[in-house]
Amino acid sequence: MDVGETWPELVGGHRRIVDAFHTADRCFLLLEARLPERGPRPLDQKALQILERLLNGDGVKVIAVDLGVAESYVSTVFRQSAERLGLRFRVSNMPTLLMMAAHAMRSRVRVEGRRVSLVRNDVSLVALSAARPDQALADKVSAAEYAVARLLVEGHRHSEIAALRGTSVRTVANQIGSVFRKLDVSGRSELLTRLFLTTSHGKSHRTASSSCLGIPQPVVHSTFDSQASRHMPAEQI
Question: How far apart are CA 200 and CA 48, in angstroms?
Answer without folding.
Answer: 23
